[in-house]
Structures are given as C-alpha cells and as structure tokens.
Amino acid sequence: MKIATFNVNGINGRLPLLLEWLAEAQPDVVCLQELKAPQDKFPRKAIEQAGYGAIWSGQKSWNGVAILSRGVDPVQTRRELPGDPDDLHARYIEAAVQGVLIACLYAPNGNPAPGPKFDYKLAWYERFLVHAQALLDTEAPVILAGDYNIMPTDLDVYKPERWRDDALFRPEVREVFQRLLDQGWTDSVRSLHPQERVYTFWDYFRNAWGRDAGLRLDHLLLSPSLMPRLKRAEVDRQVRGREHASDHAPTWIEIADT
C-alpha cells in the first residue's frame, strides 16, 4: 500500500501536473493540501476519471485538504480538528482506507513570529496533540500525513542558521514535533533515512530549486502497529522540477499488507 502526501498549491491551477503524477506513481492513497478552492470547485470528475475516489474540505483562496483513494471511496471519519468550534479553516480531514485510518493535515505557517499567527499555530498544534493521542489510544493503524510546516531538525533545512527565528523552525514548533514522537508516533522518512538531507519543499524565490536550498515540511507519522510494515519512504523530487510545479514535491511511503 503506497500512501503519499502532496501540497499541490492550488489544485485547479495544477490539475494537469497532479493527474500526470497520479498516472506515473499510482499511489493507493493521497493526502492533498492547499487546494485553494471552495467546496464546489473541487475537480471531482477529473479525479474520478483518474481512478480515485475522494473526500475534501475546501475553502476559497486558502487552505483546503483532501484524501484520494485509488479504486474505492475513502470512508470519512472527521472533517475538522476537534477542540475549537470557531476555527473554520479547512486544515484537517480524516478517513478510513483499506483498514488504515488516514489523517490529512495542513498546519498553519505561523509567520511572522512572534505574533498572532504564531500563537494560532501553537494553539492549533495543542489541539492536534490531544487528537493524535486519542487516535493512538484506539490502537488502530493510523497515518498522520500532511504539510506540518515544521522542520524538525537541522538536517531538515539547507542552512539552519538562517531559519532560527522562523515560525517553521523556532524551538517551540520543533518541541511540538518531538512531543508527537514522544507520544509514540514515528517519522517514517527519517526512520529510513536517518542521516540524509531529505527535502520536500523548495521556494519559488532565489533559485531555491536550482540551488537545492530545500526544507523538509511534509511528513507521514505512523502509529506503532504500522512501523513493522514500513518498507519504503521517498520523495518524488523530479515533480518539483516540472513546468508550473507546486513548490512542494510528493512524499510517500509503502507499507506491507497484513
């Protein structure tokens, strides 16, 4: 079973790229972020013609998350992160697919930090930590996949010294990521590539792609029961180099069948 996460940075504007990658990679499950489309503008027909069922939570111009499943419809279990009924941002969706619970998240960026946006990011993550623990307590196989907007360690950023005060790299957010690992989640990519510089994002500015000045922002965290089944964890870097590409590349794992 191949599970991917991909911040598409505008699903309708980059639909041909997404469909091209789906045909090439043939993932079984895909978590998408930054749809940047209202609920009624999700390209459902094109996704279905590509062989995928889908659930999604849209929002005009901003945010937006979706879960695609090849050959079947995802069974939706949740459309929002619990804990704050006033938070209407489309940042979380959850579904059961082929015996695995898939959580798709798009965490807040948080810049500029310090400030209200950074406070919102930390508050959002406190809610996420509570829900992540509740998912662990079920003892079900669970994957938390998405754009976390966190670089967990110095190995996840091309020049750490330049990012110390950024909301993606401040000690507070790296501590949040460590708290997730302390709960019992495993960073799948880092577990199979412990010493490699693995990037999933390259900015559009300052020739970041050409210089390989990347960041690792997209993560797939696994519950304990899935770790023995983890076989591969990779990034489809070549997708970032294509014309009109997202600034993120698809990140994916393979887990063995039970």
TrEMBL record:
Keywords: Hydrolase, Magnesium, Manganese, Metal-binding
InterPro entries recorded: AP_endonuc_1, AP_endonuclease_F1_BS, Endo/exonu/phosph_ase_sf, Endo/exonuclease/phosphatase, ExoIII-like
Keyword Manganese: yes
Domain of life: Bacteria
Site residues by UniProt (Important for catalytic activity): 218
UniProt GO molecular function: DNA binding; double-stranded DNA 3'-5' DNA exonuclease activity; endonuclease activity; metal ion binding
Domain (Endonuclease/exonuclease/phosphatase): residue spans on this chain: 4-248
Residues with site note (Transition state stabilizer): 149
Record-linked Pfam families: Exo_endo_phos
UniProt-recorded name of the protein: Exodeoxyribonuclease III
Biological classification of the source: Bacteria, Pseudomonadati, Pseudomonadota, Alphaproteobacteria, Hyphomicrobiales
Gene that encodes it: xth
